[in-house]
Specification:
The structure is a single chain. It contains 5 helices and 8 strands; from the N terminus they run E-H-E-E-H-E-H-E-E-E-H-E-H. By secondary structure, the protein is of the alpha/beta class. The longest helix is centred in the first third of the chain and has 20 residues.
Length: about 190
């Protein structure tokens, strides 16, 4: 992976989620640290940082709400910003055209929510022929309850996402692994 053909895709890291009843600061804190490390590392390596923000008819996801903005605690100066209305950041947002025009074929995926928009974008990107690194530790989700009543923890959800993505749609990697891979490719090490 080199910085020339790679982009960091930061999906839905926005204040809208803090307004939801599922939000938990204790779960979000490590995510914020990890996503910031990934953004800073990509910026330092001159990897384009693509910010995606989700909009829809839900009160807190409407542009007019004031919550469709970068999540407090995250500093990002994106190369480009796209708005999306679907789960995949590649549907009707202009992202795929932008990536194609720049010869970008490798994506680093992070953001909110692990099992929804991040996973969906990863699957879609893979089907379009992109090579994807999925950085689970830089994704955020919250416990979910199955209709049966069983509660799935954050760890359960992340493990399931890794299970279905690994080797099929993406390489599962840590922040450190992704940034080292780019550095090694650039220096030839």
């Amino acid at each position: 992976m080199s910085a020339n053909d790679t982009a960091l895709i930061v999906i839905d890291v926005q204040e809208s989620f803090r307004q939801r009843p599922v939000w938990q600061d204790d779960i979000a804190r490590p995510f914020i640290r990890n996503v910031q490390a990934l953004i800073d590392g990509a910026t330092k390596r001159k990897i384009p940082v693509v910010q995606i923000l989700h909009t829809d008819n839900d009160d807190v996801f409407q542009l007019e709400s004031g919550f469709v903005r970068t999540l407090e605690g995250v500093a990002i100066d994106p190369t480009v910003l796209f708005y999306k209305k679907r789960h995949s950041a590649l549907v009707e947002s202009g992202l795929n055209v932008w990536l194609t025009e720049r010869g970008i074929r490798k994506l680093i995926i992070c953001g909110i929510r692990t099992e929804q928009c991040c996973e969906t974008t990863t699957r879609h990107a893979s089907d379009l022929g992109y090579q994807v690194d999925y950085v689970t530790e830089a994704t955020l989700t919250f416990p979910m309850q199955h209709p049966s009543g069983q509660v799935f923890s954050v760890e359960d959800i992340k493990m399931r996402t890794e299970l279905v993505l690994a080797g099929r749609f993406a390489r599962i990697a840590t922040v450190e692994e992704v940034l080292q891979a780019v550095s090694h490719k650039e220096t030839g090490l």
